[in-house]
């Protein structure tokens, strides 16, 4: 089996584990709330079907064709991010405005923005290789767009996605060859900004405090993380058995979304949780192989961005539920319940596999040259 | 920029990611293996709970198997204050459903930090359903067993009642609490965060054992007759209280026992404590003239007097020491039987004087006065019989006519029943059998002869003399029955005022009698406390006796024993057959 097939099956395995665990964690809640135990399962299945469609399209579209649309995409997603704040279109929940209503469904523009940023950064960095060390001629415009997107996401507020986007973009800039003398001040500048953000909001301060010592307030701020510890710890090595979780009975909030990994650990033990981690490791390894063998610099950057995004999301999510990072609202890719992230993550995997198809292709190199001759200012 | 350089940079990013994965594995190992025991224990503490399974408390049935006390499963509502999202709205809705003051409900649900507060226990089904249909956050239900008394106030003093936790507090509920309570079961299970049981995770279970049922000797119909007639009598004669005891003198089985004032055991707290007292066994009164039958019985049994002996009744005034005895009507010479019939105080005292105080005292004790009858109800008292050593010179002129002695209504009924039963005292009893929930008899109580108190001959002549009481010449003409012969005795006693003297306005009027006189099926004691303005036992208790006895005997299907009554009952065909039969005896 080649790497592309392996990658595909790894993702399919993650999806399978996800759909089983979605049902296990949400059935009781769904039965009580919607009088239908399959409520979340059915929706997740629909999103996976949509996602696989997006995956098929991406896999069969030459990734170079995406380059032509990267500027349109970045502006489009900035517009969508702005729409979140328009009354009547945007939808708020839990004190955050993250969704746009679309017919009967809601979708999260930050998910498309994430992908658009990667596509755009890969394109612009590949094009501006020669001006990469020049701030005004090279980095100013991409950084401005990047900053605008980040600003819109952070205002929602969605610190998790903001940090994820910043990290992925940072990695891409670093690999693209931006000198440390340009990158370092940017990183330094972000430190007080992050500090201000964290301590300006009461709930973020509490999350940090809960992270530092959850047992100080086990009934309040530390509650969710302690419940997550109990779930994982109760699972032990082999777990309580599928569907045997006790913590899913309202003890652990967001059991079918951001904290689904805790229930996996409780029901399937360290073995099950370890398998999930290993599958994400496989996504990283296989993704990096594609990345290294990408036929051109654009493909390399694009693959790196996608792999970083998927892996970082998984790492951050699992680090949060194991108490290794403060709580952020990030879902576990391919497993947590959530429509927009499922569709765009699968689309991203499709792009990655398409890059893998072009390994060793001369045509691609020719394509790259042709594109770089074109005069695009942005 | 060379390809190698960016490959190197990607590889360093790659390596960093790989490090992160190593850290994740390590973290999982720490949480899931190293800290497994501590965290799993913490989880167990959170999820596990033991549920007590309430047993079904035993039912109480009358002798025709009609339910008197039952247990039904009902719902109780509780609140988990910290789960209530909108306390204002919740308080409004709950107080509407429970019809309770809003502030009271609000105070309960606003107790922050409390995990559990009862809102209403053992609710009516309709109220519980209404609250449940509101689907409020933080409001839950628990199933409990509620005690229900389908007959309401009927027999309330005998049955008693239970507290909110189904512990017997009065009457049979208290007396047989241990038998009826049953044994609670328990189960270990797990609960969700809202405190509800997760049925699929129930781990172990010990079944509860239902309590035993009681079958009584009492009868709802007879009780109803007694209660309604007592009620009418109390109203008619403005009595502050009253008692009726109906028993079978041949077995000692209590058929009815009622008191006024009364209460409803379904809501005992709504009644004053004095209404909940079973006066038949707890109240001591001076029996007055009804006690003369005891005096005469002892004298006849000892052979001190015979039923035809004559006594000079001093024309209504007889001086004993410094005290002068009076009769209500002035009598010259009366026979023993006539003394009973006319209830002469002077006659009774003269009989007692012939018997002597030692034998009188001994006889009184043999009749069972001074000790509880052991009818099987809590709180029964023994009455007051002063020891012989404490008798004064005047006692022999007081005790024979029912003064200087304290008895309970059940003692007086049991003593009269002894005479009705040919001198053999049967122990009064209420509980016939105790059965488990499958119907197996755990314990049964059969009629128990306590003692032979007087000879059969003495009892039968006395009973014959007592037949004279409910006649035009006797003291209770209003107690006479049309269809049945009645033997009885009236009593009117003065209550004692707070200053220790006999009252001239507060009396106890009573009548105790049995029918049919020669083969008694029922013995009935009727007592009215402070009837006004009429207070003579024959006038106030007599008619009540008559009504109860007439209806009860008919209900029991006892054949009439009066000659003229036979003619009414026997049909035309029967009479013709009787007439046609040749008379061989002559």
Q: Mind telling me the C-alpha Rg of chain A?
A: 21 Å
The oligomeric state of the chains shown is: heterodimer
How much of the polypeptide of chain A forms β-strand, as a percent range? Answer: under 5%
| Low-pLDDT sequence parts of chain A | 369-378
Share of helix of chain B, binned: 25-40%
Q: Helices and strands of chain B: which structural class?
A: alpha+beta
Q: Globular, elongated, flat, extended or rod-shaped: what is the shape of chain A?
A: globular
Quickly give the structural class of chain A. mainly alpha
As a percent range, the share of helical residues of chain A equals 55-70%
User: Which residues of chain B form runs of ≥5 with pLDDT under 50?
Assistant: 565-586
Overall geometric form of chain B: elongated
How would a textbook summarize the main sheet of chain B?
7 strands, mixed
Strands of chain B, total number = 21
How many H/I helical runs of chain B? Answer: 19
What is the number of strand segments of chain A?
A: 3
Give the number of helices of chain A: 14
Please describe what this structure looks like.
The complex is a heterodimer of chains A (378) and B (586). Chain A is mainly alpha-helical and 378 residues long. In chain A, 52% of the residues are buried. Chain A is built from 14 helices and 3 strands. In chain B, helix 11 (292-302) runs parallel beside helix 13, helix 11 (292-302) crosses helix 14 and helix 11 packs antiparallel against helix 16 (456-466). Chain B has helices at residues 3-34, 36-47, 87-98, 102-109, 125-133, 156-159, 171-175, 177-181, 220-236, 279-282, 292-302, 336-342, 345-355, 357-366, 409-420, 456-466, 537-556, 563-569, 572-580, and strands at residues 48-53, 60-61, 67-79, 117-123, 139-148, 185-190, 204-206, 213-216, 241-247, 254-260, 310-312, 317-320, 323-326, 333-335, 424-426, 431-435, 441-444, 449-452, 487-496, 502-515, 522-529. Chain B starts with a helix and ends in a 6-residue tail after the last helix. Chain B contains 19 helices and 21 strands. Chains A and B meet through helix 7, helix 10, helix 11 and helix 12 of A and helix 1 and helix 2 of B.
């Amino acid at each position: 089996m080649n790497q592309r097939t392996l990658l595909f099956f790894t993702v399919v395995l993650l999806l399978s584990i996800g759909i089983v665990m979605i049902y296990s964690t949400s059935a009781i809640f769904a039965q009580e709330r919607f009088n239908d135990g399959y409520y979340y399962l059915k929706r997740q299945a629909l999103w996976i079907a949509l996602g696989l469609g997006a995956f098929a399209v991406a896999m069969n579209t030459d990734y170079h064709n995406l380059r032509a649309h990267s500027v349109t995409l970045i502006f489009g997603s900035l517009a969508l991010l702005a729409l979140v704040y328009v009354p009547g279109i945007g939808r708020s929940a839990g004190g955050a405005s993250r969704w746009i209503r679309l017919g009967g469904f809601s979708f999260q523009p930050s998910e498309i923005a994430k992908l658009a940023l990667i596509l755009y950064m890969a394109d612009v960095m590949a094009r501006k290789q020669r001006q990469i060390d020049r701030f005004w001629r090279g980095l100013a415009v991409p950084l401005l767009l990047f900053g605008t997107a980040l600003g819109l996401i952070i205002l929602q507020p969605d610190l998790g996605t903001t940090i994820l986007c910043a990290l992925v973009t940072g990695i891409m800039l670093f690999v693209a060859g931006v000198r440390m003398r340009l990158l370092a001040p940017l990183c330094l500048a972000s430190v007080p900004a992050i500090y201000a953000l964290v301590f300006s909001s009461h709930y973020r301060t509490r999350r940090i405090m809960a992270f530092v010592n959850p047992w100080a307030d086990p009934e309040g701020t530390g509650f969710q993380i302690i419940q997550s510890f109990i779930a994982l710890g109760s699972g032990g090595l082999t777990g309580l058995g599928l569907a045997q979780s006790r913590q899913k009975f309202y003890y652990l909030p967001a059991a079918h979304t951001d904290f689904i990994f805790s229930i996996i650990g409780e029901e399937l033990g360290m073995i099950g949780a370890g398998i999930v981690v290993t599958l994400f490791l496989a996504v990283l390894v296989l993704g990096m192989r594609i990345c290294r063998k990408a036929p051109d610099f654009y493909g390399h950057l694009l693959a790196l961005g996608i792999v970083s995004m998927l892996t970082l999301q998984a790492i951050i999510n699992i680090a949060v539920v194991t108490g290794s990072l403060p709580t952020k609202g990030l879902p576990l890719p391919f497993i947590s319940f959530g429509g927009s992230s499922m569709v765009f993550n699968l689309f991203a995997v499709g792009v990655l596999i398409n890059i893998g198809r072009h390994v060793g292709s001369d045509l691609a190199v020719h394509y790259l040259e042709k594109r770089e001759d074109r005069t695009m200012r942005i | 920029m060379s390809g190698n350089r960016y490959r190197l940079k990607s590889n360093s990013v790659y390596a960093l990611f790989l490090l992160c994965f190593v850290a994740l594995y390590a973290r999982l190992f720490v949480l899931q293996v190293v800290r497994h025991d501590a965290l799993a224990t913490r989880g167990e503490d959170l999820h596990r709970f033991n549920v007590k399974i309430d047993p079904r408390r035993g039912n109480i049935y009358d002798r025709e198997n009609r339910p008197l006390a039952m247990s039904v499963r009902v719902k109780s509502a509780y609140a988990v204050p910290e789960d209530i999202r909108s306390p204002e709205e919740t308080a409004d809705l709950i107080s509407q459903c429970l019809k309770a003051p809003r502030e009271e409900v609000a105070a309960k649900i606003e107790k922050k930090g409390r995990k559990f507060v009862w809102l209403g226990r053992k609710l009516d089904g309709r109220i519980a359903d209404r609250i449940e249909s509101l689907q409020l956050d933080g409001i839950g239900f628990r199933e409990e067993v509620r005690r229900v008394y389908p007959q309401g106030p009927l027999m309330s003093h005998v049955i008693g009642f239970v507290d909110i936790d189904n512990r017997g507090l009065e009457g049979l509920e208290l007396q047989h609490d241990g038998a009826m309570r049953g044994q609670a079961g328990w189960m270990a299970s797990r609960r969700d965060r809202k405190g509800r049981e997760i049925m699929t995770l129930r781990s172990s279970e010990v079944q509860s054992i239902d309590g035993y049922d009681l079958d009584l000797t009492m009868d709802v119909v007879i009780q109803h007759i007694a209660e309604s007639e007592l009620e009418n009598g109390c109203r008619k004669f403005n009595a502050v209280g009253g008692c009726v005891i109906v028993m079978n003198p041949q077995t000692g089985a209590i058929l009815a026992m009622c008191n006024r004032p009364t209460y409803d055991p379904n809501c005992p707290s709504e009644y004053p404590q004095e209404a909940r007292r079973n006066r038949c066994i707890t109240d001591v009164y001076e029996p007055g003239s009804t006690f003369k039958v005891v005096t005469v019985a002892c004298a006849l049994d000892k052979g001190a007097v015979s039923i035809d002996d004559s006594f000079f009744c001093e024309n209504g005034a007889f001086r004993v020491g410094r005290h002068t005895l009076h009769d209500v009507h002035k009598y010259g010479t009366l026979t023993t039987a006539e003394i009973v019939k006319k209830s002469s105080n002077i006659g009774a005292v003269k009989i007692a004087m012939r018997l002597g105080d030692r034998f009188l005292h001994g006889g009184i004790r043999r009749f069972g006065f001074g000790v509880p009858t052991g009818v099987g109800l809590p709180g029964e008292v023994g009455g007051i019989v002063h020891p012989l050593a404490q008798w004064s010179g005047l006692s022999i002129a007081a005790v024979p006519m029912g003064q200087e002695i304290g008895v309970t209504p059940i003692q007086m009924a049991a003593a009269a029943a002894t005479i009705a039963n040919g001198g053999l005292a049967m122990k009064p009893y209420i509980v016939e059998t105790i059965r488990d929930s499958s119907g197996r008899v755990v314990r049964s109580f059969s009629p128990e002869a306590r003692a032979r108190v007087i000879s059969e001959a003495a009892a039968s002549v006395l009973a014959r003399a007592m037949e004279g009481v409910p006649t035009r010449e006797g003291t209770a003409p209003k107690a006479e029955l049309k269809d049945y012969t009645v033997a009885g005795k009236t009593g009117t006693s003065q209550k004692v005022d707070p200053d220790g003297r006999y009252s001239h306005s507060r009396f106890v009027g009573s009548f105790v009698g049995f029918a049919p006189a020669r083969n008694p099926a029922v013995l009935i004691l009727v007592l009215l406390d402070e009837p006004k303005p009429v207070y003579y036992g024959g006038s106030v208790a007599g008619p009540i006796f008559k009504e109860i006895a007439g209806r009860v005997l008919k209900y029991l299907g006892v054949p009439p024993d009066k000659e003229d009554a036979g003619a009414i009952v026997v049909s035309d065909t029967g009479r013709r057959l009787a007439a046609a039969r040749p008379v061989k005896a002559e």
